[in-house]
Amino acid sequence: MKKVDIAVIGAGPAGLQAAISLAEKGYTPVVFEEDPIIGQPIQCGEGISVNGLKDFSIPTSNSSICVRKLESCRLFFASKREVLGDITAYTLNRDAFDQYLAERATDFGATILTSSKVANVIRKKDSLLIKAEGKENLEYECKLLILAEGYKAKIAYSLNFPKPTPLIKAFEYKIKGEWNEKLEFYFDSQKYPSGYCWIFPKEDESNIGIVTYAKERKKRLDKFLKEKKISAKIIGKIGGSIPMHGPVKKLYDKNVMLVGDVAGMVNPIFYGGIRIAMTSGKTAGEIAANYLKDDGKTSLLEYEKKLSEYSFMDKVNLECHNFFYSRSNKFLQKLGKLLEGRFINRIKGWEKIEVLSHLLKYPILYKRMIKLYKMYRGFKIVRDWGF
Ligand SMILES: Cc1cc2nc3c(=O)[nH]c(=O)nc-3n(C[C@H](O)[C@H](O)[C@H](O)COP(=O)(O)OP(=O)(O)OC[C@H]3O[C@@H](n4cnc5c(N)ncnc54)[C@H](O)[C@@H]3O)c2cc1C
């Protein structure tokens, strides 16, 4: 059995960023990853806001990671009316992105054990015993553990953390050809309840997907392609689940911290999680370094406190989710009509007054003014933290 200060379970963006933050401070975390290749299989639409890249000094000039820069998005609310938004984002090669993070972590001194599935974690008095299986059976004892195992949350659950439920499912095609210059989002409460369809262009290919609580996602996505008259060759298919209600209540316990999807660190409106996962990983890594430096005197409560300063932790996100995804198509269509042709984020000054005066024509909207305002705040956060 090996003894280490700190271990991380899961080498996705959350776990890798936690390892980077720790290694940067001179610690040598051990990261367990069950898959043989970091970043594969890809389960992602591969969109990220530019701020998500800036925060972590990801080189946007490296086109094998950051494939395409996109400057705006188009939103459709159960109709063909187009609403616009300025949103600087990139589409990624997500496997290369995760591999870049892994390289950075190991360059700083972290050890990443691939093909090493953690089967069990046993709490001891002041430490944790990790049993992993894979190429060889491994036993590690650590003082502190960061759980970054994604939405399945098996180890977290075994350590009495709540699961990040409910989950919503996503399904995506990779198709040949670039569909558009913009990111596109299609909302429809009947066709894609609690979710939407997306089109994210890359170079010479596009990711077209659906996220919804409803069954028959493939059938619904096929229908969407038909409606959009997209007949390009399908070159790949992916799917996966995403926590849909935001952060779980319990983010740490004694000497364990949860980061990323396992902690529900996903925006509950667009269901993007990469930037939030990395921010939670970075924060946990920094707190862990302090904890190790002063021999356990730093309370892990600091982790929760630091995270609460971010707008992605604000309860307005879930309120926006609850309100927006329970609206009828009639409501969505009126919203689309009200905002048609406008850039939502640019509505200021006189334009705001103009929009508000138009709003008075639609009782279905103005009778829910307060909720609508919360929805507006939620969508503002989405620009930065949505994906
Ligand atoms: C179809 C789909 C599309 C998405 N599109 C986007 C998008 O466009 N933009 C965006 O921001 N977000 C998107 N997301 C969400 C985003 O992918 C996740 O929020 C993000 O990957 C979370 O990172 P993580 O590190 O917490 O978890 P993960 O990336 O899931 O990493 C967890 C890692 O832990 C490993 N692991 C699990 N259990 C064990 C174990 N017992 N032992 C060892 N290793 C283990 C797994 O193999 C995995 O590598 C999408 C999700 C899906 C499913």
Share of helical residues: 25-40%
The number of helical runs is: 12
Ligand kinds: flavin-adenine dinucleotide
Tally of DSSP β-strands: 16
Outline the biggest β-sheet: 8 strands, mixed
H/E series: EHEEHEEHEEEEHEEEEHEEEHHHHHHH
Arithmetic mean of pLDDT: 96
Query: What characteristic shape results from the CA principal axes?
Result: globular
How would you summarize this macromolecular structure in one to three sentences?
With 387 residues, the protein is an alpha/beta fold.
Could you characterize what this model shows?
33% of the residues lie in helices and 28% in strands. The protein is of the alpha/beta class. The strands form two sheets. Strands 1, 2, 6, 7, 8, 9, 15 and 16 form an eight-stranded mixed sheet that branches. It has an eight-stranded mixed sheet with strand order 3-5-4-11-12-13-10-14, with helices on both faces. The chain is globular, with a radius of gyration of 21 Å. The mean pLDDT is 96. It binds flavin-adenine dinucleotide (FAD). Flavin-adenine dinucleotide (FAD) binds at residues 9-15, 32-35, 43-48, 117-118, 148-150, 155, 170, 172, 238, 240, 242, 260-261, 266, 272-274, 277, 387.
